[in-house]
# Entry
Amino acid sequence: MTAFVVRRILVNIVVFILIGIGVFLLVRAAPGDPVRMMIPPADLQEGSEAFIESRRAELGLDDPVLVQYGRWFLDAVTGDLGSSFISRAPVSELLIERLGPTVLLMSTALAISLLIAIPLGIVAAVRRNTGVDYAAAALSLGVISVPSFFLGIVAIYIFSLQLGWLPSAGMSSPGDGTGGDILRHLIMPAAILGLASAGPLTRYVRGSLIDELSADYVRTAEAKGAAPGRVVARHALRNSLIPLITIVMINIPQMLAGAVVLEQVFAWPGMGQLAVRAVSQQDYPVIVGFALYVAALVLICNLLADIAYAVVDPRVKVT
Amino acid sequence: MVLALAACSDPTQDDTSESGGEGATGDSGGSEDTTLNAYLYQPPASNWSPMAPASGPDQVVMNLIYDSLLGVDPDYKLYPRLATDLPEISEDGLTITYHLKEGLTWSDGEPFTAEDVVFTYNLMADPDTGSTATGRFSDVVGAPEVAAGTADTVSGFTAPDETTFQIQLTKPNVGLVGLTGNIMIVPQHVLADVPVDEMDTTEFFTQSPNVGMGPYVFQEYATDQYIHLVKNPSFRDGEPEIDEIYLRPVTSDVATAQLGTGEMDLVQISPADLETVEAMDGIEIGTGPGAGYIRTSVNEKKPYLQDVRLRQAMLYAVDRQQLIDQALGGYAQPVNASFMNDALPDDLETYDYDPDRARELLAEMNWDPNQVITLSWIPGQRDRDTAATILESQLNEVGIKLQLNQVQPGQLTDMMNEQSYDMTLYGGGNYATEPFAVFGINACSTHFPAGGNLSYWCNEEFDQLMLEANATVDEAARYDLYQQAARIENAEVPMIYLYNPDTIWAYTEAIEGFVPNGDFTNPFWNVQEWSLNR
# Structure
């Protein structure tokens, strides 16, 4: 088991480094010049060119890309991801500042989605092809089909503007920032993000539980006279949740994509906003930093899924 | 009354931020704390340095926390702020003298002197600080040496006494006043020990620019959420009325909605939101003309784009009033030259919509109707996208095959470097205060990338008039020369002028004293005269 985990970690580190190289090169292969873009053409004046040249030199953009990569890599292994071209603040600082809000938003959303998906999936599976099942299917399809930014705007309209129950944007009220205040700001974005991933999760829970319910051991349990509730809860459900671990882990990076959009809508001070701005400004170090963060998240989630699988399902052989 | 709940900050809360009160804060214990919430159209880059490349949202903040010798009012006229009056220019045009107001202090209580001004202007003229504007000072004695790195300070910036700041020039340059008088002054006593090449990354500018001469003092930037500012008790005009300001970056949809709930007090809106906002109770609208304008440059490096009649025909072929009505709800003015205000003569050709005249001009020059011209622009702004499609249809109507090409910002930069575009649609600039700014987009010596001349137009007579005007101290004579230059530009059409959009502000009627400014980075230009009566 330990050997399995160690090997998986080593493989992931290699993959991570390769992703780093890929992102670094791709970002620099994009057209344009981040320094020149700092000054709109209509504002160019005598002296702008001197600024552009000196800034390019200062940022090391005049060196060959591989030299730039080497320099960046040596810094990166010590934890220094460089500085933003625009604000000149260290990238790691920019990311860490925004990590908390993003993690808070995503973990709350994940909890909400599981709280919705598991009970709803069970009910839909047990009562399949009844009104409850169809309603659950309709709801799942609905939240999958409607883009979350749209749901976000509608929610702001209803709960903030019409009813006045919840604040419409941000993570805290200026001058406040207590737990209750943050919670009030968190409800809408987390609920919408959670709802969006609850849709597919419900379908998975339902499908996998139905598979288990028709398995031989369930029939045996029923034949032995176990109560129907006990059959579902003790036998079928436990087995059906195993694939769910993988689905949830794979879902987390997808959720991040949803969070990037919702952070814009709700002015949530997370990483999404930072990433979107960095891309539009060609702020190379920030883009690379963010991409590596996403890559790390995906790799860690996959790794955890693998390990959890091995732990939970005795049929998975680890050598 | 949701709005009251949302907008009212807790008056019992301690003000932990007595940064530089010096006892002048007064006791606000009894009265209500007044807080203004304003929209910021984008989170700041959080580099609040006057030397840093211009970034709109950061500019809004800097306009509140710093002050300058001169300001620009909504009519785009210079007026004195830290100076007692507009500067004196010696008869030979070689000495510019500013007199500063006496007895002023920084927000931390330190005295403000002409040395602070000399310090700041030196930073602006030194490329090592990350300044983008060093070229503006090329006519100042000693500035080229600093730009070249052979001297540390500009000998032409001096402070003969505590309240006098002088600029010595090697040749007359009147436009320098309009182009540099509004530089924001930073505190020497805070920054003197920072090495010049670390000026762009120093904590004061990137995290807490909490000492300034502006009406408000920087308190805190809660990342991507808000910038908190409190009034400066030692502001030159006395302490402002409104106690606190929060600048909050949210999407324009949310901002407009929050205007209705009272969470937001001041928002810059687009013409598309006008109808929604006009239907709200207690919300006022104010507009001002912008300082720049939207145009398309025509690349004259391309042989088929060199004939002036082609460019004139393009102007005649486009119904710009229709474009303004359709894309901007009428909130813009058609443009016929880069010059504005007093530099704009009233006898210019207005190129009113006349497709027949366009066809005549094209016939006269034997325009090849099969020649395809490509218009490249960065999509995503409603008015510009509409402008592009109207250009396409109306130019095609008179026999100019225009093809639209949407590009990414980086792609456009590359096309500019390679001079490979035919036409490009963009906007910006500031030509309303200082007419000499037009030199930067139209002169033979300012072809991109040395300047912003993206049409690669070159007219020696125009350049001559501009340079002569900038060296002429007498105001009437100077503006006469600018008007002559404007007539040449208007006849030669170096670019297809489109429109000058208004800046539209929506604000709660509780704000008294708000005067709409067309410069969208400076809504707070007279904030010390505002009060908030909820």
About this structure: Residues 101-312 of chain A form a domain with the MetI-like fold fold (CATH 1.10.3720.10). Chain A touches chain B through 58 residues (CB under 8 Å).
